[in-house]
Amino acid sequence: MSSSTALLPKDRKKDDHPIFLRVCHSPWSGIGQKALVGLRGLAAAYMLASFALIINYELQHLKHDWLTIFEFSNVQYLLQVMYHVIAFTWTFMHLHYPHHGSQEQTFATQVQKFLSPPRQHATTKNRTWFSIFYSAANAFPFTSTLIHWAVMIPSKKTSIPADQIFNHGWHTTFFVLNKWGVSSLLSFIEVLFFSSIRCPEPVGAHVAGLGALSFIYVGWQYVGYIVSDKFAYFFFDHKQVGWEYVIASWFFFAIVNNISYFFVYGVTAVRQQLTKKGDGKKSGYQQLPQ
Fold it and tell me: Which residues, 6 or more positions from 232, have their beta carbon under 8 angstroms from its beta carbon?
């Protein structure tokens, strides 16, 4: 067996590969295991470095202080960073240490097991929980980007006005374009090229899950208001827009997050069609490497 082809056992019940291992394989035949490990490593390193620069800009230049940890764009970015670090770690371990479970149990093999993709269990529903996490990590960037450019910029409620994004230092341009541009682009690349996770289902569980996360964030906003006396989004501030508009905004926020989920679902469906093997064509994997 080639060192660039890791083991990929099937879930025999559904005749499908576990979702945790689908993270570790690109559906495109041109992206092998070694290449995917390298690409995921670059993505994770970039996300970590850019997140540090973004938080530094928030604190040092914008003086947002405690408000920083309550901004949706930062919460979303942190979630995305976590996903890419996990995805890189699992992909690396799956390629280089796929047999740790069959070896003598030592401290080293225990560490390998901890860092490797978990087994999929029907009893714990860990597949569904991870799928919701995956969907949130890759859908929320689109929500954040949409709100910034379609709501905050036209309302002139941003810390950096549209006419100050460029020609005001590289850090300012980097800050805006990464938070509300590059993060969405990376999510698109993840769903279309890096991951072979199928359309995130069941749809009902994901809609409910992302809706619940949306309202958890709304609650987090109000914790932020208590701490910093500010709201990250003006439409959550009852003093600015009134309670009727605020309550409508709660539901609008949850709806937009689910629209972003369906966008990810649609991109995934397109990718699944593009990577199916046609008659004698090798556009991608119909069946992932074993």
Answer: 67, 70, 71, 72, 73, 221, 224
